[in-house]
């Protein structure tokens, strides 16, 4: 990449280069809908170091995407409102920045990749236009120069014949290629943090692997922090350093990847791991978690997971929800019975 | 793109022929079932048969197939097609004027009226729709929603007559009483009816009345479209790209949202021409619409069918252009 | 099944759509539509605009069906000596120019307007719906032929087409007007159905049903049609309103119903010339008409909002 | 009703318009009016601007200013006065000799001589030219040779090619004299030739009739400015070739409206100086607003309910009398037409010479007498409905409904309206005598001579005798009047004939039109000719 990509527009007031690229502290988001208030995110916290990959794992509707959107500042508001917490970029609370400043953080410092590249790319503009737009609007480049950069980016993400394809429309690309375009777009301005929201869900397994490999490679090259949002434990195992497991808007377990896979400390995490079909267990019924996640407008008191939990006791059904217990120096779990869960195996 | 255009053109031909046959058959049936329209020319006086005969022949109502009820008169249809495509002859009216002449006289007025109407509905309609769509649930949204529904439900002729009497006559007379108001406003724009002295100014209000219903539809369509698109993933992407709100809305949302609106506006040219039937009659605009009304009221089906055939050709061409425009606006269509 | 690959390592429910908090579990066509309808009903009943509009339409409907319920007066009992007497307690709408009771006229006038609208709408729903379904489902030459025929009728602007047909038919009664409205409006509904059939016929559950050997008719009516009904219903509701208005406009242009038939259109176009002198002669029928059209449109809007989760 | 779309009964009859159309302007009344200025008048789109083609009111309004004929009519008395003719004389009422004044020319310089008239009349009469006013040449000898009858009515066979192009009854004597031979004696002939159908046409006009229609070559006090702007306007300016009494305004602008309501709106906004008619519903309001600037006068358009005498149920005249006696005309006029008509008590317009009141003894409401007559006639067939016909879309249904209501109330006969036939079909039904009940029609005079109201409508086999009425005595009296020595001498015979109608009621007279015109503040003197209606050339504007 050419050098001037690293030229940031202007310094953000209060940036501490030594602080972590991203810290989320006790984030609360709610959606005010006709059917009542949905508590989508209820006190999520996590840190991200440079070069680190943090996976946020959870089922649909657990609040992981909302968390990502809140970090990016692209929540649909209304109905979504951030009701509490901090999102710190190198020590600066993004939630306190005026919109004009906040905007400059996006794509420049924190960028995002979306799940479905087909719908996430504007169907009526060429990918070249959509890539070049970044350089034109953030770097003030001419159309021509920006186009050159767009081609470079497509090259970077290994799209063949980039100089021709730059004039194609999103629907003319295959799924995997589209996702590469998405990645190129996210990396264009050389951000320090990349949030990838289910980047491979819509893709074939083989393509999934290629994309993940590409992401990993680019991350390594640039020493980027990566927040990987996914429901796919297989993906997580390969690339993540640390994992936050979310359920009903809360982080219910946070640990290094190996710890989680080896000894889950929360019944939900455990259930997830058990629901992975394994060749060596062929013929056995998958022990999926019984029941459905709660409606976010009506989260049960106490531990949100209690109706589905085989460990649940009376204490779990009463407020307050279980705190994050320190399971080991580097991991936490929000279960009163984490010891039993962990030692159960 | 090329293949798309060719395919679309190929589809165009049967549509044109089909539509024209439909109109032709309607006229034939009309004459077969309700008699020679020439008779009405003479009113209460019974014309000498020779005279009736002569005029009938001249108007081309003499073909024997017109005496057989239900006969589709393919021969006449072939003649008619020949006349239209080789001689550009759409027939004559009962006063023996060429329909093409009638239309040529009338079309400039209708075109001006249409331009005003479409401009009005596009500008105001899209603006109102965007305003309402961006602030769904707000007061502005509510206002746009209610007022558009109201405009749609009031019959256009009631609206037209009320506007003519209250804005053109009552309010206009007040303005005309004020010396400081320039004539172009007081007796041009606020003339209750079309005025040859102010051919443009006196069409503004009729044009607005004509555009009113479609304006409401445009606003509603824009509103819905914006509301749909504003939640689209690619708009979220655009935001995530750190673009200004202006650009997110103005470029990424609007471009997509306006595709159905522009399509509607294109198709609406036809509807507006039809609407001109009412508006032009009320405001005495000597355009196509008034021509159709007058001919319909006198039962001159020859003119009605001739003019409508011509209009339908215009509409079909407009639809074709809209489809092609649609393909330009939305690349997904082009490559299907 | 078909999505084993991605479900292989998936957690819980299928990953369809964004992670928005309102995402519901999607479980195949019938189940989904059932819950959609139940949901829609609940939402509609809570929507005051819909409820008011619905009640209004019921009222007008009952006028049309049982005019005697609303008035004991005979609208045909007229006396020119009572011409244009203003409204009074006993005759709330006054008298028209022939000295007929205007209230009774208005009540009896609801019938043709409603009958035309309802018949024409049912006609286009059945006919347009069927053709749209066939065109969308079979595609190929069936689609080509139906689409071209649709184009032909589509190319006639509504009012112009109606004027041509009615000038030419020269019989202006409920049946011909219904016929003309039907003839000119069916392609729109056919297009709507065709579009949604095409988009739903590739849906997984339809493919699945096909794979297990469901017959064409079953596929069409059990699996595809339910998906297409929502947009059609919305459109049909709005069209009901516009047909009520169309009757009046055609009458104004002199190609609609003819007196001594009674309809709101006739009331409006006969009396619009008197609106400066005796405004009530215009206001009453106009109010009823506008109210009806408005109600249908608002109901259509509410229906669409209720049936389309995007607008929740 | 070509070109004019009033929603009232009378205006929707084709001849109601054409009707009043028979003359030149009457500017002989001593006029103190000032000259100059531009007069802007309400107009409808004319059908034709040639004398041989234009037979509708909008056309005639323009043609009368562009052309002049042999005679004109006195604005007040309707009396015939010589215009371009020196004299119109006949010994036997059959062979007429016409002498012209010299020195008159067309706008293009051609002389207005005997040829100009013979040319024009021949052109109109020749069948293949298909000129509307060919109809008016019907009395001239040789008419059948230039426009032969179609052997099978309207059938597939074409009418035979005419044997000759010229009427044998027209003979040129010298440049300024020609003779006209009629098929039968007709004392009213001089009254007919003031109708624009008898106006002269230049050779250049006949040579290119289409062009002449757009840019007429006239011989009257005004000439066209530019050409006919279809559906928009026709402007005429004072002609310097005209030798007669000059028109008052320098310029007359006919602004063309499709809708009388729109025209009235323009008048209210001060865009028009004269409106010769009013939207029916605005009559009261206009009267209140414009008061002294409203001109009112009895008119000559006749509206009637025809009786199908060819139908058994209507054969007995007592039935017809009973029906007529059940109707309160004034009440209907007040309710539906704001009082804009005069109830008819006879068959000849009250403004015509020889017209009398109360010719019809059964035209005032008398329920008792009606019941009695009905009973004498054997009553109305039980269970049968009285059918009332009118053409569609012209607003006739309203008053016809009121008529039905009144008959129902008086005689207990329920009625049914048949008002869905468009005019063409309606007239065809009339021609074929297929009406099954009372039918609305109208009639207007072709010339100011009471015969025009009598023979064409009630003469045995006459063209517009839609009732199928036959009365030998009536026919004989008409003939007697036709061959009388002079117009005046003919009247007593015609009056006797009218008396027969008053007893037989072949049609039920309803009412006569009433002229209601409004004019603007800047109009100095408004002139209405009792035959040829608003005379714009004689109307003067205030000059400051």
TrEMBL record, chain A:
Keywords, sorted A to Z: ATP-binding, Cell membrane, Membrane, Nucleotide-binding, Transport
Molecular function GO terms recorded:
ATP binding; ATP hydrolysis activity
Positions in coiled-coil regions = none
Source superkingdom: Bacteria
Identify the PROSITE patterns for this entry.
ABC_TRANSPORTER_1, ABC_TRANSPORTER_2
Q: Where in the cell is it found?
A: Cell membrane
List the SUPFAM superfamilies hit by this protein, alphabetically: P-loop containing nucleoside triphosphate hydrolases
Cite the Pfam families for this sequence. ABC_tran (PF00005), oligo_HPY (PF08352)
One of the record's GO cellular component terms? plasma membrane
| InterPro entries assigned to the protein according to its UniProt record, in alphabetical order | AAA+_ATPase, ABC_Ni/Peptide_Import, ABC_transporter-like_ATP-bd, ABC_transporter-like_CS, Oligopep_ABC_C, P-loop_NTPase
- How is the protein disposed in the membrane? Peripheral membrane protein
Coarse class of the protein's main subcellular location:
membrane
The answer to whether UniProt assigns keyword ATP-binding to this entry is: yes
Domain ABC transporter: residue ranges = 22-273
Q: Name one GO biological process term.
A: peptide transport
- Keyword Calcium: yes or no? no
Q: Which family does it belong to?
A: Belongs to the ABC transporter superfamily.
Name by which UniProt lists this protein: Oligopeptide transport system ATP-binding protein
Protein's organism: Micromonospora phaseoli
Automatic annotation (TrEMBL), chain B:
Residues forming the ABC transmembrane type-1 domain are 107-326
GO cellular component annotations of the record = plasma membrane
Listed GO biological process terms: transmembrane transport
Q: Which InterPro entries match?
A: MetI-like, MetI-like_sf
Bilayer topology term? Multi-pass membrane protein
Lineage of source species:
Bacteria, Bacillati, Actinomycetota, Actinomycetes, Micromonosporales
Q: What is this protein called?
A: Peptide/nickel transport system permease protein/oligopeptide transport system permease protein
In terms of Gene3D superfamilies, this protein maps to:
MetI-like (1.10.3720.10)
Task: Give the transmembrane region(s).
Answer: 12-33, 113-134, 146-167, 198-221, 257-283, 303-329
Q: Which family does it belong to?
A: Belongs to the binding-protein-dependent transport system permease family.
- Keyword Ligase in record: no
UniProt source species: Micromonospora phaseoli
Q: Which UniProt keywords apply?
A: Cell membrane, Membrane, Transmembrane, Transmembrane helix, Transport
Q: Where in the cell is it found?
A: Cell membrane
TrEMBL record, chain C:
Q: Where in the cell is it found?
A: Cell membrane
Q: Gene Ontology cellular component?
A: plasma membrane
Q: Where is the composition biased (Gly residues)?
A: 10-20
Return the annotated region ranges for Disordered: 1-32
**Which UniProt keywords are given for this protein, alphabetically ordered?**
Cell membrane, Membrane, Transmembrane, Transmembrane helix, Transport
Using the record's annotation, list all stretches that form the ABC transmembrane type-1 domain.
Answer: 110-300
Instruction: Write out the transmembrane intervals.
Output: 49-66, 114-137, 149-168, 174-193, 224-246, 280-303
Question: Which InterPro entries does the protein's record reference?
Answer: BP-dependent_transpt_permease (IPR050366), MetI-like (IPR000515), MetI-like_sf (IPR035906), OppC_N (IPR025966)
Membrane topology recorded in Swiss-Prot or TrEMBL: Multi-pass membrane protein
Q: From its record, what is one biological process in GO terms?
A: transmembrane transport
Any Pfam family from its record, for instance, is: OppC_N
Task: Name the family the entry cites.
Answer: Belongs to the binding-protein-dependent transport system permease family.
**Record protein name field:** Peptide/nickel transport system permease protein/oligopeptide transport system permease protein
**Species in which this protein is naturally found:** Micromonospora phaseoli
UniProtKB/TrEMBL annotation, chain D:
Keyword check for Transcription regulation, yes or no: no
Q: Give the Solute-binding protein family domain ranges.
A: 80-464
Keyword vocabulary terms for this entry:
Signal
Q: Is the keyword Signal in the record? A: yes
Gene Ontology BP terms:
peptide transport
Q: What is this protein called?
A: Peptide/nickel transport system substrate-binding protein
Spell out the residue ranges making up region: Disordered: 146-166
Name of one Pfam family that matches: SBP_bac_5
Which residue positions does the secretion signal occupy?
1-21
| Annotated TM spans | none
List the CDD domains hit by this protein, alphabetically.
PBP2_NikA_DppA_OppA_like
Instruction: Provide any one GO MF term from the record.
Output: peptide transmembrane transporter activity
Q: Which InterPro entries match?
A: Peptide/Ni-bd, SBP_5, SBP_5_dom
A GO cellular component term found in this entry reads: periplasmic space
């Amino acid at each position: 990449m050419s050098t001037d990509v690293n030229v940031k527009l202007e310094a953000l007031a209060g940036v501490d280069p030594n602080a972590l690229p991203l810290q989320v502290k006790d984030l609360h988001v709610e959606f005010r809908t006709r059917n009542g208030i949905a508590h989508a995110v209820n006190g999520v916290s996590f840190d991200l170091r440079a070069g680190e990959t943090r996976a946020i794992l959870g089922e649909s509707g657990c609040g992981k995407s909302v968390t990502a959107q809140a970090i990016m500042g692209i929540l649909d508001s209304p109905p979504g409102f951030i009701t509490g917490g901090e999102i710190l970029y190198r020590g600066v609370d993004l939630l306190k920045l005026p919109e004009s400043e906040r905007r400059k953080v996006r794509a420049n410092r924190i960028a995002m990749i979306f799940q479905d590249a087909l719908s996430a790319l504007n169907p009526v503009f060429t990918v070249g236009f959509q890539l070049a737009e970044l350089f034109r609007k953030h770097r003030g480049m001419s159309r021509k120069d920006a186009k050159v950069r767009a081609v470079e980016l497509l090259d970077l993400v290994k799209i063949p014949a980039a100089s021709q394809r730059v004039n194609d429309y999103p629907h003319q690309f295959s799924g995997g290629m589209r996702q590469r375009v998405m990645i190129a777009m996210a990396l264009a301005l050389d951000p320090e943090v990349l949030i990838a929201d289910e980047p491979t869900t819509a893709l074939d397994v083989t393509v999934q692997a290629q994309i993940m490999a590409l992401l990993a490679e680019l991350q390594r090259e640039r020493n980027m922090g990566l927040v990987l949002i996914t429901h796919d434990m297989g993906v997580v195992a390969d690339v993540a350093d640390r994992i936050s497991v979310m359920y009903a808007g809360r982080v219910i377990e946070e640990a290094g990847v190996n710890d989680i896979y080896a000894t889950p400390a929360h019944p939900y995490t455990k259930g997830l791991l058990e629901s992975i079909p394994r060749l060596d267990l062929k013929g056995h019924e998958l022990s999926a978690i019984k029941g459905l996640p709660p409606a976010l407008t009506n989260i049960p008191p106490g531990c949100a997971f209690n109706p589905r939990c085989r460990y649940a006791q009376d204490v779990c059904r009463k407020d307050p929800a279980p705190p994050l217990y320190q399971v080991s120096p580097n991991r936490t779990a929000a279960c009163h019975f984490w010891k039993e869960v962990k030692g159960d195996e | 793109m090329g293949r798309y255009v060719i395919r679309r053109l190929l589809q165009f031909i049967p549509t044109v022929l089909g539509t024209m046959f439909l109109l032709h058959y309607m006229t034939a049936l009309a004459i077969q079932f309700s008699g020679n329209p020439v008779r009405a020319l003479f009113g209460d006086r019974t014309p000498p048969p020779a005279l009736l005969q002569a005029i009938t022949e001249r108007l081309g109502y003499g073909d024997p197939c017109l005496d057989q009820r239900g006969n589709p008169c393919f021969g006449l249809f072939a003649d008619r097609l020949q006349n239209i495509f080789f001689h550009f002859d759409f027939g004559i009216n009962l006063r023996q004027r060429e329909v093409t002449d009638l239309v040529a006289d009338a079309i400039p007025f209708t075109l001006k009226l249409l331009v005003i109407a479409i401009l009005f509905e596009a500008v105001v309609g899209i603006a109102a729709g965007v305003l309402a769509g961006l602030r769904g649930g707000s007061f502005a949204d509510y206002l746009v929603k209610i007022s558009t529904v109201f405009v749609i439900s009031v019959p256009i002729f009631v609206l037209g007559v009320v506007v003519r009497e209250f804005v053109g006559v009552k309010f206009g007379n007040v303005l005309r009483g004020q010396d400081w108001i320039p004539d172009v406003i007081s007796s041009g724009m606020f003339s209750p009816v079309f005025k040859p002295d102010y051919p443009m100014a006196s069409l503004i209000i009729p044009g607005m009345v004509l555009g009113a219903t479609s304006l409401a539809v445009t606003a509603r369509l824009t509103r819905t479209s914006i509301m749909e698109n504003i939640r689209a993933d690619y708009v979220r992407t655009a935001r995530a790209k750190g673009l200004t709100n202006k650009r997110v809305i103005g470029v990424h949302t609007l471009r997509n949202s306006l595709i159905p609106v522009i399509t509607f506006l294109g198709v609406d040219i036809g509807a507006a021409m039809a609407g001109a039937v009412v508006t032009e009659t009320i405001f005495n605009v000597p355009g196509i619409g008034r021509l159709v009304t007058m001919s319909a009221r006198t039962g001159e089906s020859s003119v009605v069918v001739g003019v409508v055939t011509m209009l339908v050709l215009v509409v079909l061409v407009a639809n074709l252009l809209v489809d092609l425009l649609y393909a330009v606006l939305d690349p997904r269509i082009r490559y299907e | 099944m078909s999505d084993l690959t991605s479900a292989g390592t998936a957690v819980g429910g299928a990953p369809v759509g964004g992670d928005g908090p309102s995402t519901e579990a999607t479980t195949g066509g019938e189940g989904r539509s059932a819950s959609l309808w139940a949901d829609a009903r609940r939402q509609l009943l809570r929507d005051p605009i819909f409820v008011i509009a619905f009640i209004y339409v019921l009222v007008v409907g009952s006028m049309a069906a049982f005019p005697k319920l609303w008035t004991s007066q005979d609208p045909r009992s007229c006396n020119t000596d009572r011409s244009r007497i203003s409204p009074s307690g006993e005759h709330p709408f006054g008298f028209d120019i022939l000295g007929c009771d205007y209230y009774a006229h208005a009540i009896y006038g609801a019938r043709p307007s409603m009958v035309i609208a309802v018949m024409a709408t049912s006609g286009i729903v059945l006919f347009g719906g069927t053709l749209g379904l066939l065109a969308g489902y079979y595609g190929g030459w069936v689609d080509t032929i139906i689409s071209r025929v649709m184009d032909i009728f589509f190319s006639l602007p509504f009012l112009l087409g109606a004027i041509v047909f009615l000038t030419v038919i020269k019989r202006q009664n409920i049946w011909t007007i219904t016929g003309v409205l039907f003839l000119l409006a069916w392609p729109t509904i056919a297009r709507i159905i065709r579009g949604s059939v095409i988009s739903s016929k590739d849906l997984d559950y339809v493919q699945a049903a096909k794979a297990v050997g469901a017959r064409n008719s079953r596929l069409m009516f059990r699996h595809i049609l339910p998906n297409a009904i929502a947009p059609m219903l919305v459109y049909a509701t709005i069209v009901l309103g516009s047909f009520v208005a169309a009757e009046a406009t055609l009458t104004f242009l002199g190609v609609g119903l003819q007196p001594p038939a009674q309809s709101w259109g006739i009331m409006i176009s006969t009396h619009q010339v008197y609106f400066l002198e005796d405004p009530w002669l215009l206001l009453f029928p106009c109010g009823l008409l506008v109210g009806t059209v408005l109600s249908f449109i608002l109901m259509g809007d509410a229906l669409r909002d209720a049936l389309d989760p995007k607008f929740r | 009703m070509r070109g004019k779309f009033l929603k009232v009964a009378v205006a929707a009859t084709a001849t109601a318009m054409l009707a009043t159309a028979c003359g030149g302007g009457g500017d002989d009344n001593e006029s103190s009016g000032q000259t100059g200025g531009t007069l802007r008048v309400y107009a409808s789109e004319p059908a034709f601007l040639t004398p041989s083609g234009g037979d509708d009111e909008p056309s005639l309004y323009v043609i009368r200013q562009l052309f002049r004929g042999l005679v004109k009519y006195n604005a007040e008395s309707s009396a015939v006065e010589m215009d371009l003719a020196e004299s119109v004389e006949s010994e036997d009422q059959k062979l007429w000799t016409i002498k012209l004044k010299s020195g008159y020319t067309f706008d293009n310089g051609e002389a207005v001589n005997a040829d100009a008239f013979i040319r024009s009349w021949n052109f109109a009469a020749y069948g293949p030219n298909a000129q509307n006013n060919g109809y008016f040449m019907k009395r001239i000898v040789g008419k059948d040779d230039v426009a032969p009858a179609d052997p099978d009515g309207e059938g597939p066979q074409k009418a035979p090619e005419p044997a000759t192009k010229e009427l044998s009854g027209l003979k040129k004597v010298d440049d300024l004299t020609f003779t006209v031979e009629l098929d039968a004696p007709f004392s009213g002939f001089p009254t007919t030739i003031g109708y624009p159908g008898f106006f002269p046409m230049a050779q250049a006009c006949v040579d290119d009739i289409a062009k002449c229609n757009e840019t007429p070559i006239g011989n009257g006090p005004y000439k066209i400015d530019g050409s006919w702007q279809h559906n928009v306007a026709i402007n005429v300016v004072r002609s310097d070739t005209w030798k007669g009494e000059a028109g008052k305004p320098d310029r007359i602008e006919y602004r063309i409206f499709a809708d009388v309501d729109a025209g009235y709106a323009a008048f209210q906004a001060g865009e028009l100086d004269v409106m010769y008619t009013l939207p029916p519903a605005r009559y009261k309001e206009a009267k209140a607003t414009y008061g002294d600037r409203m001109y009112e006068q009895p008119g000559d358009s006749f509206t009637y309910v025809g009786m199908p005498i060819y139908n058994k149920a209507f054969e007995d005249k007592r039935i017809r009398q009973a029906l007529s006696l059940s109707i309160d005309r004034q009440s209907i006029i007040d309710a539906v037409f704001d009082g804009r008509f005069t109830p008819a008590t006879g068959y000849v317009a009250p403004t015509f010479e020889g017209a009398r009141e109360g010719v019809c003894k059964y035209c005032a409401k008398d329920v008792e007498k009606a019941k009695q007559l009905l009973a004498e006639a054997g009553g109305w067939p039980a269970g049968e409905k009285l059918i009332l016909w009118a053409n569609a879309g012209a607003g006739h249904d309203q008053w016809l409904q009121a008529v039905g209501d009144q008959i129902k109330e008086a005689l207990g006969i329920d009625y049914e309206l048949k008002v869905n036939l468009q005019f063409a079909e309606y007239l065809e039904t009339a021609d074929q005598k297929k009406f099954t009940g009372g039918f609305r029609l109208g009639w207007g005079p072709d010339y100011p001579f009471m015969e025009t109201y009598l023979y064409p409508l009630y003469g045995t086999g006459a063209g517009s005798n839609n009732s199928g009425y036959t009365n030998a005595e009536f026919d004989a009296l008409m003939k007697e009047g036709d061959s009388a020595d002079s117009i005046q001498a003919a009247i007593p015979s015609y009056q006797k004939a009218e008396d027969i109608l008053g007893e037989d009621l072949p049609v039920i007279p309803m009412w006569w039109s009433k002229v209601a015109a409004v004019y603007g503040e800047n109009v100095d003197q408004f002139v209405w000719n009792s035959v040829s209606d608003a005379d714009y050339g004689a109307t003067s504007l205030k000059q400051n």
